[in-house]
Every structure is written in structure tokens, then in C-alpha cells.
């Protein structure tokens, strides 16, 4: 135990140094951790390692839950079609392409080839979110990436376990395979819905933020374990439970400070888990071993890149028939953003010892992950800047600052109302503080109204300038949210039989047409 504590202190010090260096060099923190872990492989790899059971049962639920509670369901709903296309058919399509190429290119049996295909078709949630925190991209693009990686993790685990079932039983028909997928995926979603909603009344009754933290930890880890115990997807269950709690539970918290405490805890938990995972990835990888099989690793890298190319560019080309098309520049980011990470390595290490060529699979996956984290992780920010996706005009910068000020001031006024009603704040002090915030609100609203009027004038005159484009982009994002709110309310009224279907369908069709005409922000 003392030796383990010393190793833990060393890893924390290394991570601190990496944070300082990556800030100075302006490179991804997770990439820096992996590179820092490579030189100390021989020193620490015999004492610690990337335990797949630890990653799958502890680290993965924490990362998925942290991402889920910070994901807005309304944003997911607006980009559901491209997310479903990439995380569903796109993942399967890419897995098959990689498996076929590896099977005939390297001469591996079908089971190892399929396992490599599933493992390397998975996009790492942590890596992509970490990159997008450092560079600004349009909100629709970031939502697509975050949504795909979130559900892609669950899809990878389901497919991986299904292949192991095939290996154990020796045969599985297509119908049986589809049934198994549906049972596992839908069963996981059902477990997540039940546990997510059961946690809400308990959370509302807990007035202590520390007790609320314990509830969320139990929800994240317990949901995964219950799902696994019932034979359904624990990852899908955690995703759904996290989305429900994050969108319905946090809003019911009576205190803003309690919500901040909860979100700050999960942000720190996610950051801590990320730090150890990627540092351990670097320690786990042995560069000497990878050098010996470098040609095979390069072929596997080429295979998964080809699978990603076809799944992104081919599938998204047909998106225009039923949803807003994805700009080509965004597709380039989706292709290069196919970064591998901790889940890929954990799945490789968890392959049963009886599977033929297990050591070869692990070495090939480790080599692909190393290339992905270093090569793609370092080049992705450069690509985004090169494509000018993250360019923000002065007008949009000013509008964004005003919007932040308006949101913050309104939230402060809401908190003041709550303090007044609870008797904590005297009326005189309340009025003085409320008035000071109202000055900021009025100023922000006035300037934003001027920008909106400029936007309307630019629309009438067909203004092609950067000012016109900037105004349209930001305000179209607001119009999109309003149209989605309309669509959700009308659809809910239809479900409750408040309005007749023959009147609702034309209205929803008109809303969809308006949504398709809006520009991407």
C-alpha cells in the first residue's frame, strides 16, 4: 500500500508538469499525458497497468455520466438524425470495412478481425470533448460529435459482447443477432429510464449538496452494474439515466450553489479519471513492441481511416434527403476527429485468453490508439483553424459577451427572488441589488436589439457582408430553438389528443421546412 501511494503521488506530479507544458505549447492535455507516459513504461508498467475491469466498471460509467448530465436533450433532439446515422449504421458500416480489410490484408481469422473492427470503429468521448474545449466550433457540430461519441461507446460495448457470444456459442443467425442487439440496447435504455426517474424525487428531497453527490455517484455506478447484471447494456443505461438526471433533476434543485457544487464535482471527477486513464495508456504502450510490427499497425490505421471515410462522407451525403445537410468542412472534422482512446484499449485487454491471436489484437489496437491520440489529436486543432470553422467575427464576439451578461444577470435576479421569498434577504437590500442587475439587463437587451435590427435589415437587403452573416448565424440558432420548442409542444398536445392530427401534421411540416432553411451557426 505505501508503494502504491508513492506511485500515485508520482503520477499526480507528472500530470501537473504535463498540464504546465501543454498550456505553454498549446497542445491537447490528453495527448501530452500519453506522450509523458511512454518514457516511464519500463519503470512503472510492472507495478501498475491499465486494468480493463477497472476501466469498464469504474472509469467508463463516470465518464459517460459526466458527459450525459452536461448534454442538453434539446440540442440532441435537433441533431438526432446525423447522430443516429453515425453512431448506428455508421459504426456498423465502419466495423465491417475494417474487419474485412484486416481479415484479408493480415490473414487473421474472422473473430479477431471483427473484434478489431468493433474496437477501432469506436470514437473516444474524452479525447474529442477535450479537443473541443480548447477550440471553438459551431454548436451544431460539437453536439453531433459529442452525441455520436456518447452513443458510440454504448454501441461498441454491445457489438463487442455480441461477437464474444458468437465466439462462445459457435454460431448466431442474423435474426438472433438483431434480436440480441435490440434486447441489450432497448433493455439498457429501459433500465436507464427507470433508475433515472427514480432518482429525481430522492434528489428533490435532499437539501444537502454533499448527500446529492453521493446519490449521483450511486446512480452512475449502480446503473451500470444493474444493467450488466440483468444482461443488458450498462453503458446505454448510464447514458439515459445521465440525460434524465441532467435535464430534469438539476433544474429542480432549489439552490444555484447546489447545482454548481454538483456539476463542479463531476467535472473534477471526469478530469481526474481522464488524467489517470491517458497517463496509464502511455505507460501501458511499449514502443519497442510496436516497432516490431509497425507495417501491420500502419495497415490497421489505414483500414480504420478508410472505414471512417466511407461511413462519414457516404452516409452523410444522403442526409440532405431527410435533414439539413452537414457542410463538407464539418465532415472533414468528423473524419479526422475519429480519435481512439481508453475504451478501445480496455476492450482489447478484456478479450478472453482463449481467443486466437489475442496478443496480436492488443498490439495492433495499442499502436492504432497511439497514432490516433498523437497524430490526430495534434492535427485536429490545426485542421479546424485551417478550415476557418472556429473563426468568430467581432460582432459575434460582442453579441456572445452580451448574451452571457444577460443570462448571468437574469439568473442572479432569479436567485434574489428565491432569497427574498425564503426570508433570507431584507426587502430594501433586495430592491437595491435587483435594480443593479436590471441596469445590466437593460443595457444588454438594448444592444442585442440593435444587432437584431441590423440582422433584419441585412435580410431585407440581402447583406452578404461578414456583419450580415454573423448576425444571421447567431440569431438563427435562437430561432431554431424556438421552432423546436414549438414542435415539441405541438407534438405533446397531439399525444394527449388535445388537437386533431390532420391539423397538426401540416403545422409540423411547415416547422420542419423553416428549420431546414436556417443557416448553421
TrEMBL record:
- Transmembrane stretches in the record are 54-71, 83-104, 110-132, 153-175, 181-203, 232-250, 262-285, 297-321, 333-355, 361-384
Q: Which GO terms describe its molecular function?
A: potassium:proton antiporter activity; sodium:proton antiporter activity
Q: Which GO cellular component term is one of those annotated?
A: plasma membrane
Q: From which domain of life does this come?
A: Bacteria
Q: In this protein, which residues make up the domain named Cation/H+ exchanger transmembrane? A: 13-385
Q: How does this chain sit within the bilayer? A: Multi-pass membrane protein
| Keyword Ligase listed | no
Localization: Cell membrane
Could you list this entry's UniProt keywords, alphabetically sorted: Antiport, Cell membrane, Ion transport, Membrane, Sodium, Sodium transport, Transmembrane, Transmembrane helix, Transport
Biological process GO annotation list?
Answer: regulation of intracellular pH; sodium ion import across plasma membrane
User: Which Gene3D superfamilies would you find in this protein's record?
Assistant: 6.10.140.1330
Task: Give any Pfam family that matches.
Answer: Na_H_Exchanger
- Give the primary localization class: membrane
PANTHER family in the record: NA(+)_H(+) ANTIPORTER NHAS2 (PTHR10110:SF195), SODIUM/HYDROGEN EXCHANGER (PTHR10110)
Q: Which family does it belong to?
A: Belongs to the monovalent cation:proton antiporter 1 (CPA1) transporter (TC 2.A.36) family.
Q: What is the name of this protein?
A: Sodium:proton antiporter
Organism of origin: Myxacorys almedinensis A
